[in-house]
Structure formats: C-alpha cells, structure tokens
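Hi all, a correction to my earlier message: I attached the wrong file for FERM domain-containing protein. Here's the right sequence:
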Amino acid sequence: MEINFVWASFTMYFLFVQVIRTLGLREVWYFGLQYLDIKGYTAWLNMNKRVTAQDCKKKDPLVFKLLVKYYPEDIQNELIQDVTQRLFFLQVKELVLTDQYYCPPETAVLLASYAAQAKFGDYNKSDHPPGYLLEDTILPQRVTDQHSLSKEQWEERIQVWHQDHQGMMREDAIMEYLKISQDLEMYGVNYFDIRNKKGTDLYLGVDSLGLKIEKDISALCTCSFFFQDFMFYASRLQVNKRILSLCMGNHELYMRRRQPDSIEIQQMKSQATDEKHQRLADRAMLEDERKMREAAEMEREKAQTDMVNMQKKLDVVQKETQRAQIELENQMAHAKKLDEERRSALEEAQHFEKMRIEAEEAKSNLEQQAFTQQTNQEQLVSMRELCESAVVIDSIDPDLNPCKIESNKLPCSVWVIAACLYEDGDYETADFHPMSVDQQRSEENRVTESNKNSHLQMQLKKLQNDLEGARNEKENTKYDNLHLENVKAGRDKYKTLRQIRMGNTKQRIDEFEAL
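and the right structure:
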C-alpha cells in the first residue's frame, strides 16, 4: 500500500500519525518508518525531526516504509488488533521467503500452508485446482534449490497441510504462522557489525529479550545481556545511535509488559475480544447458513436423483407397457384369427352336418325307394305271372282273363314305376364320407511452539523425513549445517537463552572481551 504526502516541512511524527490513522492502527509502539540513509544503510526516522532534516537521500519523492521496529516477546498474548497481526504477518512472511530469517525446509512448508489458509481460506478442490499456489512465492529459494522436487511436488506437500487446516479462520491462520515464526533463531533480531577491545569482528543482535553477541549470524548467540553497560566498537557513529535507540525502545517495552495494562490497552483488548466474539458469531452464522445451503443442495440433488430414477423407472414402465400393448395386440389378433378359424370350422362343421343329414335323408329315401322298388318288383313278378296265366286263360276264355281284371284295380303309379324300372335299369347308391383347431523473565521458561504441540511436532518430523530423501546436501548453507547441529544437540533459542544468562554480568563481559 502506497501513501503520498506533500508536507515535507512537517515533523516525522506528523507523517507517522497520518499513516497510522489511514491504516486504523492503534498499537503504534511496535512500528517505525524506515529509510535508506545517504550511504545506503537502513535507518529509522527520528520522529522529532522534520522530514528535510533527516540524513536520507534528497530525491523526489522521498520513500519511507512502515515496518515493525520492535517485536513482542509473546505474539499470541501481546498483539491485540487484527490489523497489527496482519502487518506483522506480511513482514515476517517476506523475511522468511527472502531468507533473511533462516527457516528449516519442513517448517517452511508448514508456514506456507498457514499462508495459503490465510489467503484462500478452506481448501476446496473445485475452487483450488492444481497450480493455485504457484502464482506466488511459497518457499525460500534456498529450500527449493536444496531438494530435487518440482514445484508441483512442493505444492502437493503444502496442499496436504492446507487441507489439514479445514475450518480454521484466516485470522487464526495468521496467528499460527506468527507463533511458529517466533521460534526461529533470527526472528525479531536486528544485527549490527561491531568489534570488541581485541578487534574481533562480531555481530550484535538486538531483540526484545536483550543483546546477543555472535561470531556468525548463522550461529547461536555466544552471550547475552539485559541491556547493562558494556563496551563495543562500531564502524559508524550513526550505527551506535541506532543501536541505542533500539535498546531503549526494547527496554521500554520490556518494562511495560511487566506492569499492569494501561486503560488504553485494557480498552483495546476488550474491543478486540468483542470483535473476536462477533467474528466467531458471524462465522457460526455463516457456517449454519453454509450447512443449511449444503443440506438444501443435497436435498435438491437428491430430488434430482430421485426424479431421474423415477424417470428411468417411468421409461421402463412405458417400455413394458408398450411391449405388453404390442403383445396384447398380437394376442388379440391371434385370438381374432382363432375365432375366425373357429367360426369357419363351425360353419364347415354345420355344412358337413347338413350334408350328413341330407345324405342320411337321401340314404333313407334311397332305402325307401329300394324297398318300394323291391315291392314293385315283387308286384310286377306277381303280375307277370298273373299275365302269363291270363294269356293262357285268355286263350281259353277271354272273359276270365285275370290280368284285365287286376289291371283295372292297380294304380297308375305302379305302372309308371314299373316302366321306369324297366327303362332305367338297376340303381346304385354312393357312400357318404363325413369331414373332420507469562510471568517475570518468563521468556527463559518458554518452549518452542512445536514442543508444545505434539501433533505439530510429529507432522514436522514426518515432513522432515520425507524431504530428506530429496535433499541435495551439496546445496546446504552454513545455516542448514548449523541448524542440523542444533537439532542433534537438542538446542533451541530459549534453551540457549537460559544458558547464556547464567552467571553475573561481569562474567559475561569477561567472556565477551575474551572473544
């Protein structure tokens, strides 16, 4: 975020107030305005001087950066406002990614997952396709150079941790990032080049817990002081002033933390608590709405599925109905055919029955005719015999001829039949054939965040073992080698702090002068 001002004649305090008001920042004691001096060294602006009186490069426009100048001892319990936590998060993340804070590979992956949760929220496969993390810098360049893993493989490992943060609020993810970061050795330390009386080149580190003397920035501190007086030499007078300013500011905050909270701090904490509760309530309401929406969506999908299934069943029933209809039509056609065949057979049977009756009648008639014929024949025989006898008698006495007498008595039909019989000859009959379907100096008793959380420690250990197989030891820096030695020896920044604070101030000064 860039803010432009044109009041070069005003004091830096006025400029600082305008910046913090623009951001809505109230925890102003942690921040300062940083710039590059005439010789290219980073420095902090003096709030009591005018802009034109600072030893910065005279160019237009003058560029200043609002950065964290003093770090708290315990981020979780000291940072109050969300905007303060956000600014700390952005600055610490930048220092980790640019390798100004040394970070082990497995811790870098964990921090990247919290950064992803803070930026994207809960992981969703449809909203976060492969490559959603590759648009930004997610790991220090040193870490990627030390391992033979592609960007996609690094993204897969970060994605697994991102999924593990499901349901975590963005503000909580930022706080988790800062809690892990504050356990790093270089966290919150401002380093300066100094020399002791012997002329040994050393590094002086100034942080919220005191002063640290190191031979190498990558090494753990050799000795520590509670801001008591001791002598060292710096390359420039301005460096001494900056060291003094940092020491005074850190000492003031150190003492303030061990006193009861002021009314302003209490009011800010109360407001922050109310805002957090409101945020939790809003989140719960949104979660309920999301669940209701998901339930409604599931019901809608279920209804659609049921409708599709019912449509499929309806299609099956329709097909079965059509098939049954066709089969019924076929059966009806077959029944009609059978009925026609039955009627035809019945008609034929009736016809045959009629023919049989007619044949029987004809047979009966023929039998009657045969009987009549036989009778007539018998009568004719009798008449022939009678006629023959009549001829004989007629020859004797014509008046006594019996033929004449009987001829008058016989009906004419007999004569007709007889004539027919003699005319037509014999009769023949045909056979009938019928047909058949924390407290004071509580920093010495603190432990790292990973030691507090066994689950987190196991996850880091698992990820470390996973990355060891792909690690290229030739790419190890002195920070890596030192980190490995510290891990093997079981050392961390808080154990070292307790060790180097043992003894009195004179012993530590003698140790410093002996370096």
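Sorry for the mix-up. Confidence is low (pLDDT under 50) at residues 400-438.
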